[in-house]
Amino acid sequence: MSQVSPDPQPQVQPVAPLSLDYATPPPPPVDLRTLAVRQRAAIFCLLAQVVLIAGQFALDYEPDALRTFHTWSWLAITLVADAFTFMLALSVYRTPAGVVGGILTLVPCLGLFILPVIIVDAARILRQHGIRVGLTGASLRDIPRTAREPVE
């Protein structure tokens, strides 16, 4: 008869190192009402820009005064959209990424692609906090008031 000698050392499965939860910075506090207001303003600015782009094709043969009005309104909407996008990017991302996202919206055609990305990320944060987000953003009625906000 043959004897099988047992393994002198049992097989030990390697253990993954523990994550250092204390070393990762906590997520920044989120003011949901401010985030929702900035997101809604950015959505309306994006819609206004799309309408102005569509209107540009309709104004090919119109008088110069109407094209001048279109140009000035385009400039105003773009500046307001850039301001709200910059503030929204700072609310959604940490400061360096928010600054980069805000600066990228200043590039004329690139801003129309960066703005929806920031809006979707803001909607994701609002949904994580249990707030319904529709096509025009979150309703302010769904967001609980903080202690320092006056009741209307």
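[next item in queue]
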Amino acid sequence: MADTFNRKIDELIREVGTGRITARCEVNQPYAQNQHQSVWFNHPHGGRSMYLGGPLLENALDLVASIARSVLTPSGPMIRLRMIEIAETLARYVLENAPKETGQLSLSGHPSVTDNGVVIYDRPSIAPREPD
């Protein structure tokens, strides 16, 4: 039985590959980290503190499950595509949850994906960085 398991794992590795794939979303505004971390700020025009980290943690189980489902599909591994979708989901979290009274913060999500250190997806933010 162990032999069958090992052969199946080897087959999975050949089909899916190995290494590290990372989805991320950078918010590059001079005040982005302060707005994200400052839980005592009031946001009368909408948005919240922890505008990226909060939704990420709240949806972590669903995101991980969706990655797991993308490993083996009838069309083959879809991990790269799923990670691009997750990077865009992170940018959507910024769009929906960033405080609205602070410039263009909500339009500043910059999603990207790297696969073994190679950039495979890189979409610039909608809003450019504001002056410091």
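[queue empty]
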